[in-house]
Amino acid sequence: MKVLWLQAAGCGGCTMSLLCAESPNVFDTLGGAGIEFLWHPTISLETGAEVRAIFEAVEAGEIELDVLAVEGSIARGPRGTGKFQMVSGTGRSMLDWVVSLAPKARHVVAVGTCATYGGVTSTGGNPSDAVGVQYDGAHRGGALAAEFRSGSGLPVINVAGCPTHPGWVTETLLLLNEGALSAEDLDEFGRPLFYAQHLVHHGCSKNEFYEYKASAVELSDIGCMMENLGCIGTQAVGDCNIRPWNGEGSCTSGGYPCINCTAPEFEEPRHAFTETPKIAGIPVGLPTDMPKAWFMALASLSKAATPERIAKNAVADRVEVTPTIRKPKGRR
Amino acid sequence: MSDQPRLVVGPFNRVEGDLEVHLDLADGAVAEARVNSPLYRGFERMLEGKDPRDALTITPRICGICSISQSAAAARALGAAMGLEPTPQGAGVAALIHAIENVSDHLFHFNLFFMPDFIRPVYADKPWFDRAVARFTPAEGGAQRAAVAARAELMHILGLMAGKWPHTLAIQPGGVTRAPGPRDKVRIETTLRAFRRYLEEVVFGGSLEAFCAIETVDQLMAWETGDAGLFLRIAADLDLDRLGRGSGRYMSFGAYPLAEGFGFARGLWDGGLGAVDFGAITEDLSHAWMLGAQAHPWQGETRPDEAMREAAYSWCKAPRLAGQTVETGALARQVVDGHPLARALAGGGVLARVAGRLLELARTQSFMEGLAKGIDPGAAFMVQGELPEAGQGAGLVEAARGALGHWLRIEGGKIASYQIIAPTTWNFSPRDADGTPGPLEAALVGAPVGAGETTPVSVQHIVRSFDPCMVCTVH
C-alpha cells in the first residue's frame, strides 16, 4: 500500500508522535505489512524537483495512490487564495494540491485534529482561515465538500487527536491495508471506532477520586481534575488511559487535565483550558450520557461518603495515606 | 558555468515544516540566496485576548518537534509576569524533560534529516558510499532503525513525567505537575543507562567522556568509530568545514535554568565572550510579508500583508541583535559555554554545526544523568502563584535549534500581546532594511552547483546543517 503524506498547516507533531511507535518500531510496523511511503516530508530522501515529479505523476494518474494522508489544517486565507501556505517549489497552494490529489486516492486519511476539523490552527479568530480536510469544526464540508468520497467510497477518515497516538495512525493504515475498515467502523465525526468508542475516563488512574468526587484543587494535586481543573475525560473519546502514551503515560497520569483534543472545536473551550467553568458552584458540562439530576444526587452522596484517605490524597501531590490493609483470616 | 542562472528549491523536506530556497547562480556556484518560509498560521494573533494560562496549551502546538521548548518558554514568561520561580526540584525535572526533547531532536536530525543526503547517486563512487547506504537509507538503514527505537524508549521518561510527547501541560510556571517518587527515579535512571549504551555502541562507538574530551579539530577528525566516525570521514573527504561557513557570531539564551545556574551558559560570542543585550533585539519587516515598523518584541506586532508585496519574499521576520545577524543552535550553545572543541570549530560550516550537535548530544547525556541522580522524591516539585491583572514577562530558553523567546504582556487579566522569536527565525531570516542577508542566506553564497543540478546537493547539506524548524520560524 502506497501512502503519500502531506504536511499542511500544522505543527508536524502527529508525525513526531507516529515515529514513537513501538513493538515493533514505526518502520517495521508499517514496512512489515507492505505499507510504504510514496513520499513523506520527514522521512523520504526525495527533495525539490524529485518531489514535484511525484506529485505530478499522482495528479496525472501515472502512479496509483492508495492513501493520501494529510497532517495539518488547510489554510484558505488570505481571502480564499490559500496563499498562507504555498507548497514550496510548486507555485501552488496546499489547498489547491489537496483538492487536486484527494480524488486520485483510494483512501484519504486526515491525521490529527488540525487535519480533521481545523484544530489549534483555527483558534483565536482563525488568522489563516484554516479548516479541516472535510470538516470545518463540527460542520461537514472543509477543504473538500461534505459529499466527497475517495476511490474506496469512504469519506475522509478522521484520525483526530492533538497529537494522534502512534497506534491510532498505524492501526488505521493497517486496517485499510487489510480492507478491514468500512463506513460502519467510523463514528459520526468520521473517527475510527477502534479508539473512538472509548472515553479518556476509561482506565484513568484517578478513577477512585472520581468515584467520590474527591477533587484536585491545584495542578500538582493528585485528585480528580474534573471539578476544578477543566478535565473532560468523561466526555472525550480516546483510549488514552487504556493504552499508554510513550511507555506509561497519559495526560491525566501526567497530572494535567484531558482537554478533549480528539473533538472538533476543542481549541475553543470558551474558558481557560485548565479551569472548570461553573454555574452557581456546579461544574457545567457533566458526563453526556447520564441524567444531570442523577449525577448531582450521586455526586453529593459520594462526596459525603468520601473516605479520609481519598479526601487527603486528592489535595496532596503524592499518596500520603496508603490503603488500609486487611489481614487475611484463618491459618494462624 | 551552470546552464541555469536561477533555481527554486522546494519542496524542501527533511527539515521540520515548509521551506523554499531561491538561488541566483554564477560561475557554477550560488551568488545570492533568498530563503522563504511559505507558511503563515498566526499564533501570536490567536493568543491575543485569551487567558494567559492558555499559552501553555496553545504555544506548544506551534511545533510538534520543539513542543517542550515552547512549553518551557511560555511557563517562564508567565512566571516572570507572576513573579514566580519554579521550586528547585521542579526546575530540575523541567530541565530533564526539556533535555530529553533536545537530545531526541539532535538524534533525529543526524540520523533522519541530515545523513541520508550522502546516499545520493552523486556520491556512488565514494569509498564510504556503501556504508552510508547501509546505515542511512530512509526507513531501512541500520542507523535509522536503531535511532527510532532508541528515541521511542528514551521518551518513556516523557510518558512517565510529562504524560505524553509532544504537547504536554506538565511544565508550569511553578514547576511540574507530577511529583516523581523513588520508583520513578530509578526507572528514569534505568532508561538513561539504556540510552547511554545506545549512544556509546551505535552513535559514537566509544565512551561519551572520550568524545567530550576532544579539544581540537585534528583530534575530532581522528575519531573513527560509530556513525559519528562515518560522518567525520565523509566530512573530511568532502571538505564540509569549508561548505556553508558562518559569521562566527553566536548567541545562546542559556539552556536549562536551575537554582544553581544554567546547564549551558548564556551569552554572545563574537571572537570573544560577551553578554546578550536583550533590549537590543529587534525584528525588521522590510522583506517579510508583515505590516508595521521594526520593533523590539515588547512593541512588536504581527499583521500579515495579505497582498504579499513584491519587495518581500517570506512570512518570516528578520530578527537582529544590535542590528546584526547571529547564528543560534547547538554549536552556538557549546561555543558560548566554552567547550574547547566548539571554540575551535567556531566560524565553520557544515562540519562545525553537525559536530557541535554531536558534542552536545554527548555532553547532555551526563547532564541528564546528573539531573536524574539529583531528584529528591520528598521535595516539592511545584509552587502555586497568582496571575496579575496587568504585567509582562519574557521567557527565554534554548530549544534544540537555539534561542527561543516569548514576550508576553497581560492587560485586564488577558493576553494583550504575545511575540515569539524562534531559533530558525534568527537563522533563516530574510534580508533586513540594509539588505543584509540572514545567516543561512549568507552561508549559501559560494555553494557549488553542478551542471544540470536542479536541487543542488551542496545546498541541501548547508540548509540541513542548521537543522531548521520552519513551523516555529513563522508560527
How many separate domains of chain A?
Answer: 2
Number of helical segments with 4 or more residues of chain A: 10
**What fold name goes in the CATH topology slot of chain B?**
Cytochrome-c3 Hydrogenase, chain B
**Rg of chain B, alpha carbons:** 22 Å
Strand order of the largest sheet of chain A: 2-1-3-7-11
| Low-pLDDT ranges of chain A | none
- State the total count of DSSP E strands of chain A: 13
Total discrete domains of chain B: 1
Keywords (chain A): 3Fe-4S, 4Fe-4S, Cell membrane, Iron, Iron-sulfur, Membrane, Metal-binding, Oxidoreductase, Signal
Subunit structure (chain A): Heterodimer of a large and a small subunit.
GO molecular function, one term (chain A): 4 iron, 4 sulfur cluster binding
Protein name (chain A): hydrogenase (acceptor)
Descriptive labels:
heterodimer, A: 332 residues, alpha/beta, Rossmann fold, Cytochrome-c3 Hydrogenase, Chain A, domain 2, 2 domains, two-stranded antiparallel sheet, 10 helices, B: 475 residues, alpha+beta, 3-stranded antiparallel β-sheet, 17 strands, 40% helix, Ni-dep_hyd_lsu (chain B), metal-binding (chain B), Ni-dep_hyd_lsu_Ni_BS (chain B), NiFe-Hase_large (chain B), magnesium (chain B)
